[in-house]
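Sequence, structure tokens reproduced for reference:
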Amino acid sequence: MIKGEYDYLKALAEINECAEHGKPLTVATHPSEALWVLRCGEGEYPDTIRHIPSLTEEYKQGTLPSGPIADNIIKGSKRRAVAM
């Protein structure tokens, strides 16, 4: 069970998912303890979480299929390279 401050857990939930089920995470109060915890979409309290890569991270890893999103990432990186 991952517990902590509400704002910290909310930030974690936005960029991670349950490692066991692959479901989105939410911040909830634990039923028997007075504290904030992460809970997965299956109603479990996971001990491990997995990072959800951004589209740019997927492109850099080579797992983003070609298309308009990949084209925009390429354009943006070229534009930043010219600006430097």
User: Anything to note?
Assistant: The chain has a mean pLDDT of 90. Residues 68-83 form the longest helix (16 residues).
